[in-house]
Amino acid sequence: MNKFFCLLAAAVLVASSARAEDINLVADEKVEWYQNENKMVAVGNAVASKKDLSVRGDTITAYYDSVKAPGGEKAKSRIKTVHARGGVIMKSPRATGFGDTLDYDVVKDTMFLNGRPAKIKTAEETITSTGGITYYLTEQKAVATGEVIASDKENKIYSDKMVSYFTKNAEGNLEMERVEIFGHVKIVTPTAIANSERGIYLPKEAKVRLFDDVVLNQDGSLLKGDYAETDLNTGISRMLMKKGSGKRVSGVFKEKKKENKPTTAAPDAEKDTANDKQ
After folding, report:
1. Rounded distance, CA 101 to CA 59, Å?
2. In 122, 128, 195, 254, which residue has its Cα 20 to 30 A from 151's Cα atom?
3. How many other C-beta atoms can be found within 10 angstroms of the C-beta atom of residue 4?
4. pLDDT tens digits for range 242-259
């Protein structure tokens, strides 16, 4: 489960502002240049690519402005925004994104993927979001909203909002620092279901913490409290109440039903039954 939350880390695809010379724009049908409107439009299986990032859409529109170069050199064009629409596919070495539209604001350094739902896939994990997924590149943060579902082969997390924060490691690569989960949180594993109002995942500590109206359900047995913590390395969970609340952790434990094995009639009894029928 500790790899389970790496979805949004894999979805951060761009790390620097784009310039016109950084982006290649191609299309099957046409590429139009509107000089008066400072925009370029690519139509028909259009692809905008930059280093290890590519964005595909039925139509891609790029808006630009001119930046004065130092030393009296000729002014250069700079991409301000990129909008992809229709069958959007966003690819990077780490993940692939799918949606109806994608907007990249170079000035604000944010990227927004929207769809019905927006989807990010890695080799083993998937995250879907009905409210879209936004990447704040400068802040090194990703936010998924709406009905958010993150899943791998064994586990699923449901929530209204999921926020991932990243830091750069010694090699200069982004790694996840924490993931915050809000609203109608539900975690489903092969052995248990947990519900709460909010939660946090700390990958370096390999721990998941759940807060507010926490309910753990395992094979019909319920445990309720204000706070729960699971150690992903040991698989041990504990439930606590807030200090000073005056409440206690409560639980309802369901006893497993014993299987009733069918009894085999004795040979003499079978003979008696047969004689009675005659």
Report:
1. 10
2. 254
3. 23
4. 666 556 665 565 665 655
